């Protein structure tokens, strides 16, 4: 009986060591990086300039997030404050662990948006940004127009590739959350006759 207990203990210990090794190796492997997406060519369109604020944009973001969460195992919410804040929780074993990611948004000349990572907190622990972004990119399905780039610590949002009703396209012109100054251009494609 004593020998069986010792073998079971050593087997369990070996399994734990293997799991920890696999986790460490997975975290230390180099991160494969994709280049920034190319902006889609602009077709002829009628332009509508929209000035907005964080409160109204939070309502729109909530609608998009609710649609995306319906097909996801991850629970999260996105809020615009003085920076973009993403809150959520993830299941680890039998517990739920809270996380918070903060980003600084930037409207690019091509109308797309870059979210530059400012901080990540899981529970009470600050974690390395690139590893967490890599884990998120590898573990979850994001829309085609969202690219997570761990080496650069950014999330690239290709607004020009986002599919909206009536083939409507969106271009970010200015995003200054601290001044609550947000402007977009809506592009409605028209046929040239």
TrEMBL record:
InterPro entries: DUF2140. It comes from the Bacteria. This is DUF2140 family protein. It comes from Bacillus aerolatus. The lineage of its organism: Bacteria, Bacillati, Bacillota, Bacilli, Bacillales.
